[in-house]
Amino acid sequence: MASSSSSVHNKSYLYDVFLSFSGEDTRKTFVDHLYVALDQHGIRTFKDDERLEIGKKINNELLQSIEDSRVYIIVFSKKYASSSWCLSELLKIMECHNKGERFAFPVFYHVDPSEVRKQTGSVGEALANHKDKDELEVRKWREALKEAANLSGLDVSKTANGHEAKVIKLMVERVSLELRSINIGVDENLVGMEQRMQALDPYLEIGLNNVRMVGIKGVGGIGKTTLAYAIFDKLTPNFEGISCVENVREKASRLGLEKLQEQVLRDVLKDKGITVSGVYEGIKLMKTMLCGKKVLLVLDDVDQINQLEALAGNPNWFKLGSRIIITTRDEQVLIAHRVKCIHDVTMLSNKEAIRLFRRYAFREGVPTKEYEILSLEVVRYADGLPLTIKVLGSQLCGKDNREWTSTLEELKTIKFPLRKLELSYESLEEDHKKIFLDVACFLQGWYKDDAIRMLESCGFNAKYGLRVLEQKSLIVTLDGKRGGIIGMHDHLVEMGKNIVCREHPEEPNKHSRLWIQEKIAHVLASNSGSEATRCVDLKITCGIFLEGLENMKKLKCLIVNHGKHKCSHDLVSDLWNFFGMFWKHDKARQYFPNSLQYLYWDEYPHLCLPKTFEANNLVALEMRDSKIEQLWEGEKVMRKLRFLDLSYSNLRSLDLRLTPNLERLTLHCCYKLVALDVHGECLKSLVYLNLNRCHSLNLKSISFIKRLESLEVLHLSYLDLREFPEYIITEHSKNNLLELHLSRNNIEEIPSSIGNLNKLVSLDLSDCYNFNFKSLPGSICRLQHLRTLNLSCTRIEELPEDFGQLECLEELNLSDTIVKHLPGSICMLKHLKTLILKFCTYLEKLPEDVGQLESLEILDLGFCFHLREIPNSICKLNCLKELRLEKCTGLKHLPEELGNLKCLQLLSVWGTGITQLPQSISSFKGLKTETWNGILDAFKKQWRKADNWKYNTE
What we know:
Blueprint: E1 15-20, H1 23-26, H2 30-40, E2 45-46, H3 60-67, E3 69-76, H4 84-97, E4 103-108, H5 113-118, H6 121-128, H7 135-149, E5 154-155, H8 164-184, H9 193-204, E6 212-217, H10 224-235, E7 241-245, H11 248-255, H12 257-269, H13 279-289, E8 295-302, H14 305-311, E9 323-328, H15 331-336, E10 341-344, H16 350-361, H17 369-382, H18 386-396, H19 401-414, H20 418-426, H21 430-443, H22 448-457, H23 462-471, E11 476-478, E12 485-487, H24 490-501, E13 513-514, H25 517-525, E14 535-538, E15 557-560, H26 569-579, E16 598-601, E17 620-622, E18 643-645, E19 653-655, E20 664-666, E21 675-677, E22 688-690, E23 713-715, H27 731-736, E24 739-741, E25 762-764, E26 788-790, E27 811-813, E28 834-836, E29 858-860, E30 882-884, E31 906-908, E32 928-930, H28 936-942
Parallel strand pairs: 1-2, 1-3, 3-4, 4-5, 6-9, 6-10, 7-8, 8-9, 13-14, 14-15, 15-16, 16-17, 17-18, 18-20, 19-21, 20-22, 22-23, 23-24, 24-25, 25-26, 26-27, 27-28, 28-29, 29-30, 30-31, 31-32
Antiparallel strand pairs: 11-12
Keywords: Hydrolase, Leucine-rich repeat, NAD, Plant defense, Repeat
Domain TIR: 13-179
InterPro entries: Apaf_helical, Disease_R_plants, Leu-rich_rpt, Leu-rich_rpt_3, Leu-rich_rpt_typical-subtyp, LRR_dom_sf, LRR_R13L4/SHOC2-like, NB-ARC
């Protein structure tokens, strides 16, 4: 890309600016300085230094140059009208200007605009010299002068106190703005770019007088480079020096970093004679020569930290106001260089994708309905990736219906865009490549915490590896429980699966990973499994013969029925009544290779694991909904086992001496469990224990908890405990316990010693119906790290007065309690985001200073029947997104200044006594408002013209 601000877009014009001037009195002074300034800002300017003087006729070549220019600067000077050449230029310029495609800009240099307009003074005298010219031609010149003088321009003597340097700077800015407004809209193929450019404005903050580095990250083909170039073109006029270095990764490897340093210096300083012999010399030159320039620098496709160190090593290399834009696939490069402003480029929306596809597939034409349907199919396949959409559109352009269908299938098969995306994969370390392939083949859609356990079980540094993939934009983490949900773009999934299959496309038994059910069934049925296979993800069907697993001697990971995809309880039971016979035959004696490190099996159909399975290498065993009653017949120690999940199983007892190094034990809903055998320090590494709904356990049977030195998370909900298990509060738990869940127990009192759990982050005491106010000790206010407190469905009447000391609290749930009022100190909770008071039927009012909860996003007051008013201070909650007031029957009105809540997205007032909403919220865009039939008509009338009005009559 050239360094010119307009070179990307202005394809139909040879020049950005045409200078019209009288050489006799401005060529070596004002016009010369103006030309240099325009050139330094990358504005292509035509200036005819060889023009003929007075009396000579303008030639066709010069007229064509006017046609080929986008902006005209007309420098009116004392002798401008003396030149028939200049006047002929002016006539042509005004002709082009009046077509509405180009822009003329007059500059009055030592001549008054009125003299040009009225042709008096020096201008009138100059015109008088054309007595020998054709009268019609002179009349046209006069009209052109008058018309040009009426345009908005600059009077040099009356601008910036006559300082010509400042006037020229203003002129360059004016011209640049005009070119920018043209350029932004020229390339119509840049669909969705305007919104993405706007999204970058808060990162760039051009008005701030600092040096800022901004990172743009995303997968290959998503439009990082296009976005950076568009920003570059837009911002160029605001800077004294500009440079755009394309393909840094490739050029640094091929040419060396010193050549890129040389390019930056030459571009910014406008000196093509600068040479750089080495990287260290280049760094010194850049430090000393760029610090006096306000620079706009784009570094495209960076993949190594040394590239940034050589090209933009430190902010103090540049003058205040400079901006450095860096595009990369690897966020870690930006983090390592301490780039704080990092923008993630998003995929195109469906509408944007359709628009972009049409541009490439139909050019100027309009698709028929039949092609509209095919277009939707293409866009669904592309899934928002611009690269894919462009290639598909180009491939399908001009083809008929039959060719469209066949070509689309062909393109899907050959996976045409994946080679470019594969660059990101090839740059990974070997372990990270394996993690990427595991995500592509198995783990997309998994909860992140579950995926981490699987990967760690197979020997990977999973947390770091997934973070690397996310930083390289190869995966994303979607909102959700258990650390979020791992997501991967469809094209990356395709690429990963293609990498696994392509070396042996017709021999699945040689693939490292197996996930296609038909291929797995074939490999197992033909007993052709091999040591090449590391991971298998299968669903139990009638075509599966698991004895074939025996040949997979190096199998590390076996996943069976993950998520119970298509297997109902009855189907699995029926199938395994049939398959169970294989357990009794010697030829099928071993279904689990001893190499297994991760074994996941939903609805395992047998009472215990097979004797022949040594499990010496097993790190994770997850068998939910199984029929297991005990792990083994007899005893077998699994020293490497770290994760054990037997939730919803028929487990009756568990000897934890067999699993001495457990870190995570989940026995949720093991209703038949009566005993856990724990001896000595066999659970010294346990950090997570879930015994929820293990109804047959009692206080005595779980007393071993006091010996758990490393425990961080403890779930004891739904155990019908009648006392608080005080033995959980030990010297160890004081410093380690982060989460304590005791919901749905019959506990009556909470001991004051609970305040000693000084690391506690989450406390759940919900549904403990026997609670009363006296059972909530004031010591709870000592839990300085507490973020979540759930007291819903308890008999709490009021909170301690010192409640505001819980300064880290983010979520407080008091729903369905008998709280009558909240202590004023609750308004001191500066980090509180969620406050739930639903069904607090005795609550009469909120604290007057509730507006001090500056972080509050959700306030739920639904079914608070005795609530009479909402304090005016609520209008200060600038972060509030949801306000729920349904069935607050005593509520008649809302504060008039509710419109100050600019973040509000949901306002629920159905079932209240409110008949009219404050007028101030009528301008809210995207506000979802829930009302009820009794006032529906009034709302419709009030908001008939508001496009954002939505209502729910349920």
